[in-house]
Amino acid sequence: MRILVTGGAGFVGTNVASHFASEGHQVVVLDNLSRRGVAANRDWLLRHHPSIEFIEGDIRDPQAVARVVRGADRVFHLAAQVAVTTSVTDPQSDFEINLTGTFNMLEALRQHAPRATFFFTSTNKVYGGLEDLNVVRQGERYAFETQPEGVSEERVLDFHSPYGCSKGAADQYVRDYARIYGLKTVVFRMSCIYGPHQCGNEDQGWVAHFAREALAGGGLSIFGDGRQVRDILYVQDLVRAFAAAAEASDVTAGQIYNIGGGPENAISLLELISELEEITGRTIRTTFQDWRPGDQRIYVTNVSRAYREFGWRPEISKRAGLRQLVEFLRAGSEAAASVSG
To answer: How many C-beta atoms lie closer than 10 Å to residue 221's C-beta?
Structure first.
């Protein structure tokens, strides 16, 4: 099977490409290497999976996209501008990457690989700030007053921030290309994914960012009061979701699924800091700043539809996942120290 992964040198893309290459599929990675750290991911992929074909290219280039889409059996469209803060400071680039880039992918799919299964990674930001849901404080976290299972796909769309608009509009284009052109497209509206190969910073990939700072003995800036909650999902669970949904494409084609850690893996920033302090044995210094625009006090994913329709639910607990992430980062730091020494 020929599998194309756009943004395949990014965090999720590296894990997806590695998984399918390990299963013996022909994997093609398209990435423009614009994000800091992804060149190291590319090198890791090619070192561990020499069969992977890497192409340096940009989804904003329709000709480049058409060349790589042709002949694909599955397409994982993961290339994106991924930070809300960046979208606020540079909305035009955010629009061009997330919306125009996705449109280019869909048109290439329609013209050159209409039978391929196409996955698009959307975001919980398409639901906006969730201001109508009552939020209560429970110790070191916020909680929904009346939604114990989290936010479902029935939630009304309410794009907030340029990032939310660009990903949300792309999300709807992907869905509509299934309805209008009969393409086998699937949308995953994802919560916070974390794990190995994540180039996290305080704007995006915050779990990895927190873990790196914990290991380095650095400090953290918290935007808000630290009680905001997300349901975190270990990346290997996400890869399993992709694989399961692809195998059930007769059911999943044309559908949208909320994908995250669910209520069992919900955690506040303050709780995450405590977990990391316990895992690393280090104290993490924290300072607090104003809330950022569009930052939800709480978002927890209702994953019941994914379980009903293609049998997927998270298996890796937040504690186990955080320990695996810290072990990966610690091993990388030790390897770098050994080389420099």
So the answer is: 10
Active site residues: 163
User: DSSP assignment of 38-85, as one string?
Assistant: HHHHHHHHHHH-TTPEEEE--TT-HHHHHHHHTT-SEEEE------HH
The closest alpha carbon to 191, from 153, 230, 235, belongs to 230
The number of angstroms, rounded, from the C-alpha of 71 to the middle of its chain's C-alpha atoms is 26
Q: What is the CATH number of the domain that holds 32?
A: 3.40.50.720
Would you state the structure tokens that stand for residue 140, as one six-digit string?
């070191």
CA distances (Å), origin 34, targets 9, 31, 161: 10, 8, 22
Per residue in 44-59, pLDDT (tens digit) is 999 999 999 999 999 9
Taking only the tens place, the pLDDT of each residue in 64-91 is 999 999 999 999 999 999 988 899 999 9
335 has pLDDT over 80: no
Residue 340 resides in a domain: no
Strands annotated E in 100-183: 117-123, 135-138, 141-144
Mean per-residue pLDDT, 204-222: 90
Q: How far apart are CA 34 and CA 58, in angstroms?
A: 9
- In a domain, residue 235? The reply is yes
The pLDDT of residue 294 is 65
> pTM higher than 0.85 for the full model?
yes
d(CA 148, CA 314): 17
In-domain check, residue 341: no
Find where tokens 């999300």 sit.
171
Distance CA(297)–CA(78), nearest Å, equals: 26
Q: In total, how many domains does the chain have?
A: 1
Provide Rg for the chain, Cα atoms: 19
